[in-house]
Amino acid sequence: MRVLRIFMGWTFAIASVVCFLIAPFFFLQIIHGDFYALFSLNSLLFSAIFPAMAIIFGVAWWNIWKQRPSAKGWGVAASSIHILLSLWMIIFRSYPILSCQGFGLILGTVGLIAFLWRDKVETVTDKSELEDNPT
Predict the structure, then answer these.
(1) What is the spatial distance between Cα 74 and Cα 59, in angstroms, rounded to a whole number?
(2) Which of 16, 71, 80, 92 could tie 57 with a disulfide, CB 3.0–4.6 Å?
(3) Using CA atoms, how far apart are residues 44 and 94, in angstroms rounded to an integer?
(4) CB-based burial of residue 62 (10 Å sphere; 0-12 exposed, 13-18 middle, 19+ buried)?
(5) Helices 71-92 and 41-65: crossing angle, nearest 10°?
(6) Residues whose CB is less than 8 angstroms from the CB of residue 47 and which lie 6 or more positions away in sequence, other chains included
(7) CB-side exposure of 64: number of CA atoms within 13 Å?
(8) Strand, coil or helix: what is 42?
């Protein structure tokens, strides 16, 4: 599972960079649009969602790379974003499931499995180890 988590961490790093690169295009579209488009809910939502996703993906990658205990939670959050974004594109935008959105579903599902899988707990088999630690 460790290798799978590291792989997912690098996919989160790539997704973070892509979201940071996409975000300015939405800001430019709002700025160069007409006055009423500036305050529409869709334009405000899309201009805020990509930087937020980039931050979540980036924090998930950083915690996985540094092997912090919070990496599991951030990995679950980032994997859930992959799944929810893919489902949104398939359901509301009518993208075929065999397109890139299907890959996003698979990637998110693999990430959820990797981060929700319980780690193996090491058991103590030698009684001398227990006697050395009087806790």
Answers:
(1) 7
(2) 16
(3) 23
(4) middle
(5) 140
(6) 23, 26, 27, 30
(7) 30
(8) helix
CA 135 – CA 121 distance, rounded (Å): 18
15-16-21-24 Cα dihedral, nearest 10 degrees: 120
Q: Look up residue 49 and give its two tokens.
A: 């969602």
Question: What is the pLDDT of the chain when averaged over all its residues?
Answer: 82
Write down the pLDDT at residue 121.
62
Which residue has tokens 């996003």?
A: 104
CA distance 61 to 5: 10
Cβ neighbourhood burial of 39 (10 Å; 0-12, 13-18, 19+): exposed
What is the domain partition of the chain in residue ranges? Answer: 2-117
Alpha helical stretches, state H, the chain: 2-32, 35-38, 41-65, 71-92, 100-116, 127-132
Any idea how long the chain is? 135
pLDDT tens by residue, 1-46: 889 999 999 999 999 999 999 888 877 776 676 555 555 666 677 7
Greatest CA separation for the chain? 76
